[in-house]
Fold this protein.
Amino acid sequence: MRSLKGRRATDLAVPLRAALGRRQPVAAALRRLQDQDCDLAPVVEGRRAIGLMARSSLEAAARYRLESIPVSSLAGDAPRGLPWSAGHAKVLGALRGGAPGVIVRGPDGVPAGLIPRRLMDGAWERAGGAPPARVIAGRLRAGLPRELFKLLRRASRIARARGEALYLVGGVVRDLMSGGAGKDVDLVAARDAGGLARELAASTGGRVVTHPRFLTARVSLAGGARVDVATARSETYAAPGGLPQVRPGSLEQDLERRDVSINAMAIRLDGAHFGVLVDPLGGMADLQQHVMRVHHALSLTEDPTRALRIGRLAARLGCRLAPQTSGSLALAMGCGAFDRVSGERFMQELRLVAAEPDPIAALRQVDRIGALGAISSGMRVAPGARAAWRRLRPCDPDGPLASVRGMPAPDLLVALLCADSAPAAVRRRIARRLRLAGEPLRRFIEAPATAARVLRALRAETGLHRTAARLEREPPEAILLALSRDTSRSVAARALACLRFRALRPRVGGGDLARMGLDPGPQFGRILAALRAARLSGRVTDVESELRLARRLVSASLRRGASGTARARTIR
């Protein structure tokens, strides 16, 4: 694109050829724009413009069989207006945030033309408002592991030698721009991700795997670091909830593929451009204001799984949903887009929820915005789920459940917490929706009964070692569900003690018992169980006290055995 410097709105505007009524159905609006051969038109109510409609959005809505909805459902916020004499910097400022265009007003204040957003592709690196490149470069150095930063520098030199623009994109940019650290590196190459990745792998001794169909590649280094590289892409959805068809595109089109604006920033890396922030969708402003904003009304209709990502990210960052996001979610729910997504894809999203710093807060946010019930009616977060998860930390390698065998996958744990209070028929429907089968299905269906048994045992007045021995036979997820049903400290304390019992193994083994004169047999198991119970109750605290107890138990067993032998001789 030729330079915009010095150009005014009057030089960039295209004629205003048509206007659409706010209640006009999508089908009629699309025919009108096709008849007038225009790509952009204002949506009006009376004499007031309440939005702008791009023909591409109408075409997408028609593909999704939304021909009868009013165009106001897709139009977004009221469009910004610019005077005829506005310079290119003001044009970029008015377009930042994802609007499909701006209205240009003549000297008399009457709308006289439109500037489509797409005319500005390639100009956003020179747009104002971003921190200086040297500041962002410093954040990259400070916020990335040293190995990854060196890898970015090497990729920068390769891209410069190839004459190809290279960008850091995705969540790592969001985290770095908010003052945090990053660990996952995603790059976008302007022309050829595969070629750049192969050169990067060759220069670092790494391994490269390319996926030409998706225009992506992955470089893995010997030390474990890895970087994903994609060619700048645009995408098209054939139907709601399906997978997109991708093709090469511009950087701006690639950023528009992202779920929300705060994930749609890029940092340029090649050569002298290192550290330049590209932010056409206003992600930096939304990050500062803690707002989750989608780029267009059909975003969540095209990919409803974005709603779960938005929910968990909003919980992690303390963000609120922008009106555009709420409207996009309502549209996706209203047209049944969630029903077209496979259960496997939703289970994958639940696995990502489980990996959040506070999974239940993320899950509750997903529930709060309505996305959980949209997956399957009847799904809701158990009231005591957060307390139970914090106490048991089921996905923590250092948590109480870490040493417990037979733990189900994290996504199944989350699904169990979302269906625990549902009636049996609803649970079966949820299981079908999530495409559960085999062992996961059995555990999902049996979970309420097993959790009820566990809770009765934890509330009982029996000795702790007896309760622990009883619960040892129950599936570990039942303890999580039991604690979500009863959040009292006493039940939690007994549950944690029982879990410690599961992890306990006697310091004294069968070999020790044999050396004490005991022949192998059922008494081995009884004595070892007694030693575990003594450790659980605190009666033995070290190897010596456990050995003393073992000797007493072996002696008692031998005396009983001797008495039994004497009685048998008498009978004979």
Observations:
- Confidence is low (pLDDT under 50) at residues 564-572.
- Residues 97 and 496 are 50 Å apart (CA to CA).
